[in-house]
Amino acid sequence: RIMVPRPDLKGRLGVLKVHTRRVPLSTDVELEVIARGTPGMTGADLENLVNEAALFAARLNKEKVELSDFEQAKDKVFMGPERKSMIMSEQEKRNTAVHEAGHALVGRMLPGCDPVHKVTIIPRGQALGLTWSLPKEDRINLYKKKLMDQLCMSLGGRLAEELMFGEMSSGAANDIEQASKLARAMVCRWGMSEKLGPLAFGSGDGEVFLGRDFASKPDYSEETAKSIDAEVRGIVMGAYERAKKILVEHMESLKRIAEALVEYETIDAADLEILIQGGQLTRAKPAPRVVAPPKEEKKNRRILDALDGIPKMEPEKA
Ligand code: ZN
After folding, report:
1. Which of 38, 35, 12 is nearest to 117 (CA)?
2. What φ, ψ does residue 119 adopt, rounded to 5°?
3. Quick check: 51 and 313 in contact, CB under 8 A?
4. Cα separation of 32 and 9, whole Å?
5. Which amino acids are annotated catalytic?
6. I need a labelling partner for 93 at 20 to 30 A (CA). Which of 10, 71, 103, 289 fits?
7. Centre of ligand 1 from the C-alpha of residue 41, in Å
8. Cα separation of 86 and 67, whole Å?
9. Helix (H) and strand (E) counts for the chain?
10. Cα–Cα distance for residue pair 113/280, rounded to 1 Å
11. How far is the C-alpha of 108 from the C-alpha of 111, rounded, in Å?
12. % of residues, the chain, pLDDT over 70
């Protein structure tokens, strides 16, 4: 697999300029601002972003693509399309709210985590909910302290469920897998274990991400393998305890965030701040989500026709 480097700010701005060349943009759209708000996006993501924004605008029969269309498109490109047809039971909804609240709270409390941008319990793709953090700037290197904090955040979801319900669900499988892989990469690939030192165990790119490579002979002894396992376990358990401490200490905030998620379904960084400071959200509760998009012929052809290349994603069918 070939890794294409992700474009930096200047690169993203360039890609956006190319793809919006023929798209009518509202004056509130500043490409520089959008480029700044999309670190980590690939060129293909950005192309997709422009297409999706245009589709949103066309669906609402707008003359021009507005900033709000880009915001919606960003959610969709980053988090996958909403699964509007999926009905969650009340219990499932509560469980997801608590789980995401756990991620968000730990993420907010640890300096090494990227700022939480949005938290949602609207199902998207395979996920029932999502906590979305956005880096403040382009990231090139990964640092141990940051990685340790991120580990805590990824364990925060499962932990919140445990603390609130005294129960574990299978919903955290992905988090747990991510955490284990990250810890293993820290030990085996990036030489971040004090005990094992700055050595690489296992060879090749990405191999450690796939777990043990059974096909080829490992370049370390059985004894080292045991030490690696112990180190990986130690790192994950350390993160687990740290995350637990945060959640126990801020239990009231955790409950408020979870409640707000059940009521509002999606909260942003400002909402999160209010809830952590002990406040309640006062904005209007979301209206029932609109299900039926206008029919194809009603769409504003001008915007659709202007799209460079054919939009690769069909407008979502409700
Ligand atoms: Zn999770």
Report:
1. 38
2. -130, 135
3. yes
4. 8
5. 100
6. 71
7. 21
8. 28
9. 11, 3
10. 24
11. 8
12. 83
Question: For tokens 């001008």, what's the residue?
Answer: 302
Q: Is 169 exposed, middle or buried (0-12, 13-18, 19+ CB in 10 A)?
A: middle
Distance 47 CA to ligand 1 centre (A): 28
Q: Kindly report the pTM of this predicted structure.
A: 0.74
> What is d(CA 15, CA 21) in angstroms, rounded to the nearest whole number?
10
Per-residue burial over 86-107, b = 16 or more CB atoms within 10 Å of its CB, e = otherwise: eebeeebbbbbbbbbbbbbbbb
The H or E element containing residue 120 is strand 116-120
Q: Which amino acid is at 284?
A: A
Residue 170 one-letter amino acid: S
In this predicted model, what pLDDT tens digit does every residue of 218-263 receive, in sequence order?
A: 778 889 899 999 999 999 999 999 999 999 999 999 999 999 999 9
| Distance of CA 302 from the midpoint of ligand 1 (Å) | 41
Strands of the sheet containing 116-120, edge to edge, are: 130-133, 116-120, 266-268
131: left (phi over 0), alpha (psi -120 to 50) or beta: beta
